[in-house]
Amino acid sequence: MERQILLNGQSIRYTLSRKQVKNINLRIRNGEIFISAAKSVPLSVIEDFLLRKAAWILSALAESKQKEPNCESTVWLCGEQLTLPPDVNRDSWQKEQAAHLLPAAYEQAWELLKDAGFSKPALRLRKMKSRWGSCIPSKAVITLNTALVGAPVDCQVAVAAHELCHMLHPNHSKAFYTALYHYVPDYERCRNYLKSAQGFLIDL
Ligand SMILES: [Zn+2]
């Protein structure tokens, strides 16, 4: 049950749960107050309890709000920084964006390499810590890091093309790079961008 009370002139919200507990329990988490008390404890006793603890509650609330990671989280999408509302989970938001943007980037990369002499590998998306993508040539599977949605589209395409080139050359040999620069002449610029952006795109 959501309730409100005036503590030192401030209107404070709290959630009251009726439980089989002995005392009145008070818990503050992420700037929210949770009270539990037995059914038999009258509301006036609970409010009395809150009033007596007002100073402590107010300072604990202020501290808990400060500790909150950041009410609004910032994310990167296609090279631009956006602010997400506090109630949106960044990880699942990024996953959703990745699910429709990265297959599109992969298609663009495939357009560049479709005549290279191999059939189109399956695409998988996964959150990864240390790499933008990977390719298993023997299984014809390419995985792209969901964090790649933060990078500009041409960089997303460059990474997908890099992985597709591994279907021709599984290593990072000279022949691999010759092929890659043939299909993505601008690869160097994308690689530099991704190198410098790795910190904020992957570890946000
Ligand atoms: Zn590689």
Task: Name a few traits of the molecule.
about 45% helix; about 200 residues; single chain; 4-stranded mixed beta sheet; alpha/beta; 3-stranded mixed beta sheet; Zincin-like; binds zinc ion
What does this protein structure show overall?
The chain is α/β, with parallel strands linked by helices. It has 2 domains: 66 residues, no CATH class; 130 residues, Zincin-like (2-Layer Sandwich). Helix content is 43%, strand content 25%. The chain has a 4-stranded mixed β-sheet, with helices on one face. A 3-stranded mixed β-sheet has the order 7-9-8, with helices on one face. A hairpin with a 2-residue loop joins strand 1 and strand 2. Helix 4 crosses helix 6. The model has no long low-confidence stretch (mean pLDDT 90). The site of zinc ion has 3 residues, from loops.
Record the SSE blueprint.
Blueprint (H helix, E strand, L loop, with lengths): L1 E6 L2 E9 L6 E5 L2 E6 L5 H10 L1 H14 L5 E5 L2 E5 L5 H24 L8 E5 L6 E4 L4 E5 L7 H13 L8 H10 L3 H16 L2
Parallel strand pairs: 2-4, 7-9
Antiparallel strand pairs: 1-2, 3-4, 5-6, 8-9
Helix pairs in contact: 3-4, 4-6
Bound molecules: zinc ion.
Zinc ion binds next to loops.
Question: Could you give a short description of this structure?
Answer:
The chain has 6 helices and 9 strands.
